[in-house]
Design brief:
Aminopeptidase, Alpha-Beta Plaits, binds nickel (II) ion
Length: 391
């Protein structure tokens, strides 16, 4: 243990440096060329890793242990967001309009740190470790799905992922057993009426009044058609029609999202929605188009990986700092794509420190990371491997 702790201590400043560099030069989703190149260059300096670029903006590093055994994957996402940074940090984004406001810079740096530490423990490892630096977490279809399709997980037995979370105090780590995140699917509805003069509605089929009925009626699905214990979130987030005082438009466009933790609900809702849209438009003599776009699937932490994660959290931050979450979030995470393939566990690591002003939420232009979380993240990644492959 002493040796491992010394190794982790020895990469502490380097991890902060990596994180700040990645923060300063952020890349948008599916465009992470510079970030991926930087990560690749850092990994090249570490002895004993086999590097690969499965997709143009992803990097994987494979560490074969001295003895055979299971293969454990550790994942860090690397993409940034279309946000103009207002954090005031000295190493703020130099790429105007792009910011690491979801902590993916930290995720990449923690994983680099773990790679450097674990490469030095190669002789003690019974099995293999695959470090996945994943692009495109923020926008469906997401980078994870693509990597799974490329076969990145083909010989992997288990996967672990970490996310920083400023709404939890630094030093605490939250584990949600089984379902932890929602699926997120999007829909587009076009109501096709007949446009005309605003003073002569009798000659028109008004898509706005029809659309208004559709918006209200859709909530009946949540309230009346589904088991209340599995109620989803169905949000119409866009309603666009017309641009004049005296013109009834031809079409109205509604768009929104469905979030659920239940597979059956996810499957049922599109049909229920289309039935309502079809019924209401038909009742008023209008027509419609209904388009469904599948997004991230439900995140599900497998029991056996939760047991391991719980043990590692206890080892790293102590039992008092372990939070067992009682409810899943309605946010989504493309880590779920890996979990469809192999058992995996995704954890939220507190990075909120009021005194340091790091409690601003993710995806906010003023988000600041408490860098103390980096060391904890390295310890967690190393801890998964210690728990499973080092005896
Ligand atoms: Ni994120």
């Amino acid at each position: 243990m002493q040796t491992v702790n010394t190794l982790i201590e020895s990469v502490k400043n380097e991890v902060i440096g990596w994180r700040r560099h990645i923060h300063q030069y952020p890349d948008l989703t599916f465009n992470e060329q510079k970030t991926a190149n930087y990560i690749y260059e850092q990994l090249e300096k570490i002895e004993g890793l086999q590097l690969s670029r499965p997709t143009p903006t992803s990097v994987t590093a494979y560490l074969a242990g001295a003895q055979s055994g299971k293969t454990i994957a550790l994942r860090g996402d690397i993409d940034a967001l279309p946000i103009t940074e207002c954090s005031g940090e000295t190493f703020s984004s130099t790429n105007t309009g792009v910011m690491h406001a979801c902590g993916h810079d930290a995720h990449a740096a923690m994983l680099l740190g773990a790679a450097k530490v674990l490469a030095q423990l190669k002789a003690q490892i019974k099995g293999n470790v695959l470090f996945i630096f994943q692009p495109a977490e923020e926008v469906p279809p997401g980078g994870a799905k693509e990597l799974v399709e490329k076969g990145v997980l083909d010989n992997v037995d288990m996967i672990f992922g970490l996310h920083v979370f400023p709404n939890i105090e630094t030093g605490k780590i939250s584990l949600k057993r089984r379902v932890f995140s929602a699926s997120s699917d999007n829909f587009d509805i076009t109501i096709k009426g007949v446009g005309g003069h605003g003073s002569m509605p009798q000659n028109c089929i008004d898509p706005i009044t029809i659309g208004a009925e559709v918006v209200s009626a859709l909530q009946q699905i949540v309230a009346r058609n589904l088991d209340p214990l599995h109620a989803p979130v169905l949000t119409v987030a866009t309603f666009q029609a017309g641009d004049s005082y005296n013109v009834i438009p031809t079409t109205a466009h509604l768009a929104g999202t469905l979030r659920t933790h239940n597979k059956d609900v996810r499957q049922k809702v599109p049909q229920l929605m289309e039935r309502i849209v079809a019924g209401i438009t038909q009742a008023h003599g209008a027509d419609y188009e209904f388009k469904w776009t599948t997004g991230y699937t439900i995140g599900d932490n497998a029991e056996e990986t939760c047991d391991i994660a719980q043990q590692v959290i206890t080892n790293v931050v102590g039992e008092d700092n372990l939070i067992i979450a009682s409810a899943p979030m309605f946010g989504s995470e493309d880590f779920s794509s890996y979990q469809e393939k192999v058992p995996g566990c995704f954890l939220f690591m507190g990075s909120g420190n009021k005194a340091k002003g790091t409690t601003v939420g993710l995806h906010n232009a003023k988000f600041i990371l408490d860098e103390d979380v980096l060391d904890i993240g390295v310890k967690m990644h190393v801890g998964f491997v210690q728990q499973l492959l080092i005896s």
